[in-house]
Design a protein that fits this description.
Layout lengths: L14 H4 L5 E3 L4 E3 L15 H5 L15 H13 L1
Antiparallel strand pairs: 1-2
Length: 82
């Protein structure tokens, strides 16, 4: 699954620079995640870096974008080719 940022986000700017896939961006009111770029850091780290560093724990799994670990790995490989 991709991750998402909820409206509990305090815009602390911690998540965006640690995303290896440039999936995080500033939305109209708070940071958001592009699901097509989010691999939960598969291929880069053992755990999602944004969620690990979030001080308010507002980055859960996005159930609207279910993916297996293998699908996330394939997405990682495709992103590396770009």
């Amino acid at each position: 699954m991709a991750l998402k940022i909820t409206d509990e986000c305090i815009n602390c700017d911690v998540c965006e620079p640690v995303c290896p896939n440039q999936a995080i961006f500033m939305g109209a009111e708070y940071y958001q995640i592009k699901p097509e770029r989010c691999t939960e850091c598969v291929g880069h780290f053992d755990e999602p870096q944004c969620a690990a560093r979030c001080p308010v724990d507002c980055i859960p799994l996005d159930e609207a974008h279910e993916e297996t670990r293998e699908q996330l790995k394939q997405k990682y490989l495709l992103l590396q080719q770009q």
